[in-house]
């Protein structure tokens, strides 16, 4: 394997700036990697045929002496929930098969302006509804650590692409954990920014009060570099915050010194007992906390009594908003159109198109959401769920009055086998147990690798949550712990992946 694809985005950006490698070479190396392994991983739905042209343009601009950003020329994978003018945008659904947007999502436009090279669109659960990327209409993505296991969801394609060295960084979206849970099971880093901190314009909506776009990477610094590019106010997004944001990359660099851990108060939620987590997940979590404590952090038990109701509230709020958002896929304006034999009314065409175009999980949530919003049930279900949401927000307020960050395992288990939970929606939904509260409250969250579970050798993540607008705090804390753990491991966690280390086999070619 070309050494280029092993470099972090920060390392690659520095070598590009120094003229040690060209963007064309870097892009070609990643395209070659995709060609070699993506038949097994299936992280990508579409490869950008214009990627090398974009890379060549960056090389020309750099040769002409133009001042470029730190990530100029670095390849970028893009979750297919984000619309792009130069590639199809399907959101993992047949109902949008082949759709090309007339405009770029704001985060895509900002990435282009910063000189990042979009190399392709990544696989995802249909309309971001899922925790395993098995609900994609185009087939599941496989976890590079074990091709028989799930890569998380809904953004499993972005996480798998980064973990398999098919891309150094990627864009994802997180509605209830869709960046952080895939990071947990693939040994990568995932950030859900503060709600409103990154534009949602051009992100195909699932649940508008919960959705947030964020970075996927192999290091905290790389995530910060990408976050700096995509973040900030966007007048096209009515929920976009007008705040001025600090540099998240600089926060990560500050954190890597380790000084931020001394005196840091880390909250651990007493209502999340170890019995609710796989043994290897719990032990890795506590081992990471001990590392922090040894560096001067204070571990504080806190109470968040309403977090346990987060999953139930979320799976009323999300389907209700999804029912409304997905009503626009009506066979009339864009996307798939299926006409009954012999014709039919507009209602007949709409009904048949949605029957054929939507998968079973999407239909399940539309039906649930429509019911929750119906006359006579709105207050009992949707209204009650919103009250629980307020109580969870109050739990966060009380907790952050006592601690600087809250720590939890990023998910209850390591990656499970493909097909293991596909017919059990409730068990699938519980994968987002620890990530959902952040979306309900709008606060930022980060998942970084914390080690390998002893029982199966698969990656485990630790999640940190901070108050709204304190994303930089997460980068400092995440980078500080990352530095401690990588030093203890003797290198990045992905270097310990058996599938990725093999000298022979589809995932080991050239490693």
Observed structural traits:
511 residues; alpha/beta; Amidase signature (AS) enzymes; eleven-stranded mixed β-sheet; 17 helices; 38% helix
CATH architecture of the domain at 3-264 and 408-501: Alpha-Beta Complex
> Count of DSSP E strands?
11
Radius of gyration: 22 Å
Mean pLDDT: 95
Counted by DSSP, the helix tally is: 17
Distance between the termini: 5 Å
The CATH superfamily label of the domain at 3-264 and 408-501 reads Amidase signature (AS) domain
Report helical residue fraction: 25-40%
Any idea of the CATH class of the domain at 3-264 and 408-501? Alpha Beta
* Structural class by helix and strand composition: alpha/beta
Q: What fraction of the residues are assigned to beta strands by DSSP?
A: 5-15%
Write the H/E string, N to C: HHEHEHEHEHEEHHEHEHHHHEHHEEHH
Low-confidence stretches: 501-506
Shape: globular
Sequence of strands across the biggest β-sheet:
1-3-2-4-6-5-10-11-9-7-8
For this structure, the CATH topology of the domain at 3-264 and 408-501 is Amidase signature (AS) enzymes
InterPro entries: Amidase, Amidase_CS, Amidase_dom, AS_sf, GatA
Enzyme class: ligase
EC number: 6.3.5.7
Domain Amidase: 25-474
